[in-house]
Amino acid sequence: MAEADTIRCDACPVLCHIKEGRTGACDRYANHAGQLVRLDPHVVLKRAVSHGERVVPFLEGSREWDGTLVHTPETFVTAIGAGTTYPDYKPAPFIISSDVDGADMVTVVTEGIFSYCGVKVKIDTDRFLGPERNLVRAQGEPVGHVTTSEYGSQMLSLGGVHHLTGGGKREGRVTCETLLDLCNGKAVELVIEGGASVVAQAGKAPIVNGALEERMRVGCGSATIGMFAKQWFGKVDEVVVVDDHITGVLSEHQAGKLLGIPATGIKVKGRRSTPGRYFQVADPGTAWGGTNITDPLLILGAWNPKIARAGLRLLMVSTTGEHYAYYELDESLHPVEKDLPASLAKSVERVAENCEPALVSVLFMAGAGGSLRAGVTENPVRLTRSVRAALTRVTCGGAPVYVWPGGGITFMVDVTRMPENAFGYVPTPALVAPIEFTLKGSDYAALGGHVEFIRPLDSILNDDNRRAALNAENPWPLAPASLPPKGAK
Ligand code: SF4
Predict the structure, then answer these.
(1) Residue with the larger pLDDT of the pair 65 and 413
(2) Strand 430-440 and strand 455-456: pairing?
(3) Ligand 1 midpoint to CA 14 (Å)
(4) Is the peptide bond before 87 cis (omega within 30 degrees of 0)?
(5) Phi and psi based region of residue 327 (left: phi greater than 0; alpha: psi -120 to 50; beta: remaining)
(6) pLDDT-based confidence at residue 480 (cuts at 50, 70, 90)
(7) Binding site membership of 26 for ligand 1 (Cβ less than 6 Å)
(8) d(CA 219, ligand 1 centre) in Å
(9) With 90 as the cut, is the pLDDT of residue 248 above it?
(10) Which residue, 98, 190, 380, 402, has fewest beta-carbon neighbours within 10 Å?
C-alpha cells in the first residue's frame, strides 16, 4: 500500500513509490511537492554554427536562454530528459511540429528503455587483447566478449540481453553500469580472459596493460611493404615488416619484384600465403606488430647460403614503426644488430608518421521495439516501413544513426556525436537512450500518428531546458534529406 505522501512513478516497469522530496531508484524522477518530475533538464539543440565551422562544445550546465528569439527551424528537440513512454500505449512525451522552410515537420521524441542493447567497441591497436569469443569482464563480471578483429583494430561486443537479464543479478547490474559509463564517455576497465586489461573511453586512446596506445598501424605488414617499398629501394637489401596477421618481406613481395629487388636468401618462419606474405610468424601478444616477440630475429630461420652474402643489410620494423632494428649479416650469415643508418631512419619515421592516433570508438546499438514505436503511431509496423522508405529520419540526441537492414528498427550510433550524459538507466536493468523520429506532418498523419498530441515547439521551451549546440559533424536533424545542411557550399 502506498503511503499518503508517496507517488508512484510509472515511467518504467520498476514502478517506484517515491516519497515527498525523494528520488526513484534510477535518480531520474523525483517527488517534488506531490508532483512526479523528471530531474535532468530536457535538452534542445540549437543550430548555432553553419556547416563547415569549428566544432562548438556543448553548453554544459547552461540551462538558461541567452535572450535570443527562438526560431523553430533553428531548434531541435532531443529526447534527452524528455521522459519515457511506459506502459507504452501512451503517445510519446513530446510530439513537436516545426515549420522548416515552409514544410510542416513533426519530431516525435522519447527516452527509450532498452533491455535489448549493447555497445560495439573498436580499439585501435595491433596488440593482442585476447582470443576471439573470450569473455570480457568488468568488476569481475562477464559483460561481453571479444569479437572479430578489424583492420588495425580489436573489437569487443559488450552488453546485450543475455548479460543484462540472462545471468546473475550482479552480472546484469554491472553490465548495465559498464554500458552506461561507456555511452556517457567515461573510462571503464575491461579485463579479457586469457588476454589483456584495457581501459576504454570513447574518443580517447586505449590503455592496454597500463601502456597508452598512441598509434594505429599504417596497414598490415604486406600493405606497409607496398606503401614504402620505393623509399627502401637502394638503401637496404631486405625489409621485414613484422605483423601478427600478415608479415611482409620486401624481396619476395610483388612490390619488391616490380622494383627489381633481388632475392636475399631470407627464411621466414610461419605459413607462407602468397609471395612475400606470411601468416602466423609468432603467437599473438602485445610486443612487435601485435606478436609476443620482443626479439624479431626469432621469426627468421637460417639464411640460404647459396643466395645470402656477408654484409647484406636487413631492416625489421613493426606496422606502427614503434619497433625497429637494423642488422648486417656477418661472415657466417648471422644478422648482427647495428645502428639504424640515417638514410633509413626517415623511412621508419614515415611509417610512424602515417599511423593515425589510436582511439576507442563506442557505438551504441539497440532495437526500437514494438512498444517504443507504439508511442509514435497506433500502427507500429508503419513506422518501421516509413524508416525503411527514408520518409522518417531516426536520430539519437540529434546524432545520425545507421539503421540495419532487415526487420525492426535496429540502429547504431556513435556516442561521441551525442550530447554529454545523454544516457541513463533503470534498474530492471536496462539502458535509457534518447531516440527521435522526424518526418513530414502529412507522412506522420498517413502512418497513423498521434496527431492530436502534436504541439508547437515554442509551447515546450522554457528556462529549464538545457541548450546545446549541434555537434558540427552532425547534419541538421530537421534538414530535408535531399537538401544540403544550411550554410553548406
Ligand atoms: S526506476 Fe526510475 S523510471 Fe523506473 S519507476 Fe523508478 S523512478 Fe520511475
Answers:
(1) 413
(2) unpaired
(3) 6
(4) yes
(5) beta
(6) low
(7) yes
(8) 48
(9) yes
(10) 402
* DSSP category for residue 202: T
Residue in the structure block whose three cell numbers are 619515421: 349
Residue 39 CB less than 6 A away from ligand 1: no
Cα(385)–Cα(173) distance, integer angstroms: 35
Question: How does pLDDT run across 289-335, given as a tens digit for each residue?
Answer: 999 999 999 999 999 999 999 999 999 999 999 999 999 999 999 99
Cell of residue 145, nine digits: 566478449
Ligand 1 and 55: CB distance under 6 A: no
* DSSP-based three-state secondary structure for 56: coil
Give the type of residue at 51. Answer: H
Helix (H, G, I), strand (E, B) or coil at 406: coil
**Tens digit of pLDDT for each residue in 361-385?**
999 999 987 678 888 998 888 999 9
Q: Where are the alpha helices (DSSP H) in 284-432?
A: 342-353, 370-374, 380-388
Which residues on adjacent β-strands are paired with residue 154? 123
Give which of 476, 426, 447, 461 is closest to 375, Cα–Cα: 447
Instruction: Supply the pTM of this predicted model.
Output: 0.86
β-pairing, 466-469 vs 43-46, is parallel
For residue 221, which amino acid is it?
Answer: G
**Cell numbers standing for residue 445:** 498523419
Cα-Cα-Cα-Cα dihedral sign, residues 8, 9, 15, 19? negative
The answer to whether 326 touches 314, Cβ cutoff 8 Å, is: yes
User: For residue 87, how many other CB atoms are within 10 A of its CB?
Assistant: 13
Q: What single-letter amino acid sits at 423?
A: F
CA angle 142/155/177 to nearest 5° reads 40
Nearest-5° Cα angle at 64, 60 to 68: 110
| Mean pLDDT for the chain overall | 89
First vs last C-alpha separation in the chain = 63
Per-residue pLDDT tens over the stretch 83-92: 887 766 789 9
Cα 149 to Cα 157: distance, rounded to the nearest angstrom: 11
Task: Write down how long the chain is.
Answer: 489
Q: How far apart are CA 424 and CA 427, in angstroms?
A: 10
Compute the average pLDDT of residues 70-98: 82
Element (H, E) at 164: helix 161-165
The CA distance from 481 to 427, in Å, is 38
